[in-house]
């Protein structure tokens, strides 16, 4: 029996064997939802003959995949966690690639009046004061961490929030769906919001504060920790992502005529 | 070829949950005799047959076949009162014992066809066995029991709940089998059938062999008053 | 409701135009699920037959465990398989994580208890029916199992189809061990989860309708192949 099973496994593996070079990269849901990946990946394949397989997960899980050595590189946006990742020796280095920004979404009639706020902190204070429904990712993702730090800078204690604060423990899309259904405020990255197809009565109410900028960084997995990690391919990809060619594609990417990302690799 | 008989049974007993189903039984059977087991309901006829066949566990005593128990099992077949129909065609049912022995498929089919004709089921070879009538089931069970040429066949009330015509057809198959050298041990409630088939009669009462004698003397002059009463159709206890 | 209609019409067009991406992920769904189903049947069916004909000490315990495992949450299976196959796990050197093979392994674990339990139920009933005859015929353990498996094939088909149904619609485990990688491990269910996350309900529903259609087609095909519907009577 074991032999039969083993044969089946071998057949299955043989069936998916592939000639092109393949590497795996863990990216965040927000990056993938932006649609930029669908522009970049075919170009990478054409230029480098390299197939980049994307694992679309939350930042927490992306870092976990990198720690376990299950991917060759990660592209995430949570600076403190990234620096810890490199400091612990799981990544060789951290390279900033580009940034986008977070936006505050809410009911189009804006009961808390965040559209007129002067800063992100003030906008959140208004929501907390009015106790209007607010959906939080609550999944330890980069966006969630950002949201928590914004509440902290607004002088608010998240743990003390009552029923109006709904932590859904889900990805950006699912959280947006929830917010749309409840007509609640939510912090989202701009890309996910623009690509989101189920906006309902929600509208973009506040953006532009510098604290809302969201830096993406590329971290190759350290081959000293995980010898099977494809260091050379990861280096090739890094060179490509920081090239002028990538710069043109990233800066030129728009959704509904809105530019989403700003290339800032050095 | 080693012989099954003579069969010597000494103090054989089978228990279920501490209750005696049959026994202790002492019995001697010789070759070339059709042995008919009779007795009232609950006297242990079925248990005696399964005990001799070896599918009921022997709790105490001994059952000695001339060639040894292990060898004897291979030369026996058993036809149940309610025959078990495998969920297959009539042909595959009849051929089943040959299939178990690794007989090539074509040969097993041919044999099954021959036996189906003998028992009058040749028109139904490709039907599902589970749709057969009671008489047809019994015939199938007989063909299935006889196809592997056993030297001894046990039959537990083979004609219970069959009409006269089916009973006669089955008796014809049985006498043919006996003529071909197959020994029979059967139980029955039908005294007419017992008279027609028996060379030897075992009269069971309350799980014990009450009387065991040649058919002629048993039916003309039973040795015990209970046997006489049973033959007269009286209630025996 | 608008989404539902949009989904239906989109599904219709996707199928009608043989949309390349749809064909690819549908084929992968089938490949993974049927692969898992075949392996699971090869494990579960003999196991069920053994449990029916053989009386051993832990038999009751094994049956109880199988029945309990029928309700195993796929996400837990996915996590366990993930930890096992991860590069830092015991089978990491095989490099199986995020491959269709890993998805097959997870699905096998999920559906073996289901198939074995359902198969065991019907084999046990059949064994009660056959017991006296087979014992009398002095058949070996192996012959008993073969006879039961062959004669109960119609009921076993039902068990297999139940396993297929659970596997083809499963998303939690294969999302974790497969990773939903485009053109590598994306199948219908994970694509549906992805499109739902993007808020594209119409496309998600369209894929859902394709999934339902696929499941119905496979069920019909399996029934037709075994021709059990025509023999009927037993």
List keywords for this structure.
heterotrimer; A: 266 residues; D-Maltodextrin-Binding Protein, domain 2; 2 domains; ten-stranded mixed β-sheet; two-stranded antiparallel ribbon; 12 strands; globular; B: alpha/beta; Rossmann fold; 9 strands; 24% strand
Task: Provide a descriptive summary of the structure in words.
The complex is a heterotrimer of chains A (266), B (237) and C (234). Chain A is α/β, with parallel strands linked by helices and 266 residues long. Chain A is built from eleven helices and twelve strands. Chain A has two domains: 133 residues, Periplasmic binding protein-like II (D-Maltodextrin-Binding Protein, domain 2, 3-Layer(aba) Sandwich), CATH 3.40.190; 111 residues, Periplasmic binding protein-like II (D-Maltodextrin-Binding Protein, domain 2, 3-Layer(aba) Sandwich), CATH 3.40.190.10. In chain A, strands 1, 2, 3, 4, 5, 6, 7, 8, 9 and 12 form a ten-stranded mixed β-sheet that branches. Chain A has a two-stranded antiparallel ribbon with strand order 10-11. In chain B, helix 3 runs parallel beside helix 5, helix 4 packs across helix 5 and helix 5 packs parallel to helix 6. Chain B is built from nine helices and nine strands. Chain B folds into two domains: 160 residues, 3-Layer(aba) Sandwich (Rossmann fold), CATH 3.40.50.300; 46 residues, no CATH class. The model of chain C has no long low-confidence stretch (mean pLDDT 89). Classes of the chains: A alpha/beta (266), B alpha/beta (237), C mainly alpha (234). Chains in contact: A-C, B-C.
Please sum up the structure shown.
The complex is a heterotrimer of chains A (266), B (237) and C (234). Chain A has 11 helices and 12 strands. In chain A, strand 5, helix 7 and strand 6 form a beta-alpha-beta unit.
């Amino acid at each position: 029996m074991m032999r039969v099973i083993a044969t089946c496994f071998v057949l299955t593996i043989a069936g998916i064997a592939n000639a092109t070079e393949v590497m795996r990269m863990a990216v965040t849901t927000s990056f993938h939802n932006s649609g930029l990946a669908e522009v970049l990946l075919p170009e990478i394949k054409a230029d480098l003959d390299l197939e980049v397989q994307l694992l679309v997960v939350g930042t927490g899980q992306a870092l976990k995949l990198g720690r376990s050595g299950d991917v060759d590189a990660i592209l995430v946006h949570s600076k403190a966690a990234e620096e810890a990742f490199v400091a612990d020796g799981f990544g060789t280095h951290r390279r900033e690639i580009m940034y986008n920004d977070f936006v505050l979404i809410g009911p189009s009639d804006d009961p808390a009046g965040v559209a007129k706020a002067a800063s992100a902190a003030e906008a959140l204070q208004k929501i907390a004061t009015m106790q209007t429904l607010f959906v939080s990712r609550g999944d330890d993702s980069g966006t969630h961490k950002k949201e928590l730090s914004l509440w902290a800078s607004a002088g608010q204690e998240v743990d003390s929030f009552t029923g109006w604060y709904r932590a859904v423990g889900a990805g950006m899309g699912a959280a947006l769906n929830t917010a749309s259904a409840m007509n609640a405020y939510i912090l989202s990255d701009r890309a996910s919001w623009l690509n989101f197809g189920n906006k309902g009565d929600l509208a973009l109410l506040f953006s532009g504060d510098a604290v809302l900028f969201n830096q993406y960084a590329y971290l190759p997995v350290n081959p000293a920790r995980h010898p099977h990690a494809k260091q050379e391919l990861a280096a090739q990809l890094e060179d490509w992502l920081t090239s002028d060619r990538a710069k043109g594609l990233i800066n030129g990417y728009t959704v509904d005529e809105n530019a989403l990302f700003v290339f800032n690799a050095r | 070829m080693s012989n099954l008989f003579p069969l010597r049974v000494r103090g054989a007993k089978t228990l279920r949950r501490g209750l005696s189903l049959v026994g202790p039984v002492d019995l001697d059977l010789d070759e070339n005799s059709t042995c008919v087991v009779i007795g009232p309901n609950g006297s242990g006829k079925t248990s005696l047959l399964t005990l001799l066949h070896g599918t009921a566990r022997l709790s105490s005593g001994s059952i000695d076949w001339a060639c040894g128990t292990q060898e004897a099992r291979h030369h026996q077949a058993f036809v149940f009162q309610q025959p078990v129909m495998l969920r297959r065609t009539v042909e595959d049912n009849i051929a089943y014992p040959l299939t178990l022995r690794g007989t090539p498929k074509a040969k097993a089919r041919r044999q099954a066809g021959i036996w189906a004709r003998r028992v009058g089921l040749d028109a139904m070879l490709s039907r599902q066995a589970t749709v057969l009538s009671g008489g047809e089931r019994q015939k199938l069970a007989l063909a299935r029991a006889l196809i592997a040429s056993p030297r001894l066949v046990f039959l537990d009330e083979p004609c219970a709940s069959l009409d006269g015509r089916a009973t006669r057809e089955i008796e014809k198959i049985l006498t043919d089998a006996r003529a071909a050298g197959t020994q029979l041990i059967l139980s029955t409630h039908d005294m007419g059938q017992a008279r027609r088939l028996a060379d030897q009669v075992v009269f069971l009462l309350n799980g014990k062999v009450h009387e065991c004698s040649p058919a002629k003397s048993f039916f003309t002059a039973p040795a015990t008053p209970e046997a006489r009463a049973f033959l007269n159709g009286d209630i025996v206890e | 409701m608008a989404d539902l209609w949009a989904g239906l019409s989109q599904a219709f067009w996707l199928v009608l135009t043989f949309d390349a991406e749809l064909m690819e992920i549908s084929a992968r769904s089938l490949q993974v699920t049927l692969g898992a189903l075949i392996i699971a049947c090869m494990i579960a069916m003999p196991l069920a037959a053994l449990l029916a004909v053989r009386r051993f000490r832990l038999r009751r315990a094994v049956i109880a465990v199988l029945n309990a495992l029928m309700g195993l949450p796929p996400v837990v299976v996915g996590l366990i398989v993930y930890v096992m196959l991860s590069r830092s796990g015991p089978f990491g050197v095989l490099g199986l994580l995020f491959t269709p093979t890993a998805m097959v392994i997870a699905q096998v674990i999920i559906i073996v208890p289901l198939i074995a339990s359902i198969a065991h139920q019907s084999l046990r009933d059949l064994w009660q029916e056959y017991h006296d005859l087979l014992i009398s015929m002095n058949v070996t353990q192996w012959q008993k199992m073969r006879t039961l498996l062959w004669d109960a094939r119609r009921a076993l088909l039902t068990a297999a189809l139940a396993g297929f149904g659970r596997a083809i619609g499963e998303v939690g485990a294969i999302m974790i061990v497969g990773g939903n990688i485009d053109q590598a491990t994306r199948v219908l269910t994970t694509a549906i989860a992805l499109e739902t996350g993007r808020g594209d309900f119409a496309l998600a529903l369209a894929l859902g309708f394709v999934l339902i259609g696929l499941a119905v087609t496979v069920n019909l095909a399996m029934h037709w192949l075994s021709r059990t519907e025509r023999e009927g009577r037993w």
